[in-house]
Amino acid sequence: MPTPELILRSLTGIANDWLWLAVAWHVFFAAVLAAVFSLKPQCRVVGLLLALPPVCVSALAWMNANPFNGSTFAALALALAILAIKLPKEPIARGPAWTTVAGALMFAFGWAYPHFLEGQSPVAYLYGAPTGLIPCPTLSAIIGVALILGGVGGKAWPRVLAATGLFYGVFGTLRLGVTLDWALVAGAAALLAATFATASNEPPARA
Q: Could you give the CA distance from residue 39 to residue 58 in angstroms, rounded to a whole number?
């Protein structure tokens, strides 16, 4: 695995070289949220849509000689897509109040992730933060949407996402020294807790 310095340099390069693509991903996430609240698409459709940003993270990681991130996010995208197909056909619905609030905070954190951009005004983070380009802000935004929707209607899908978020949050803080990634750890833990809370509230299956 590359040294922390090389990883940080690579992430910084991606964030600044692909600023236009970050803007496009902000539009994507805004469109997903708008569709969720206005059109109420099926759970599986939302799950498939949210599997797309990791594909971009993987591609950019491979292009910047980071095979670990490239492989991990390719696997994440594939897992989320496969699990999304198994999600219910019912329209998406919001989760309970606490997950909605936690999700909104987590999504805002991923949307305006305040790191890696160089020579830009603080306003630039509102539309050009490296969401959809590098791991932590991308996971933060996806986890935020999943929390707002109470797990996107499943258990395995959000748990895979939460596990990946926990790993990258801890890695970012302890290995790379990006202390703000503790927020990702908190969001991933909240999503994981939400899946178990939902499971415990489900009525027992009838014989």
A: 30
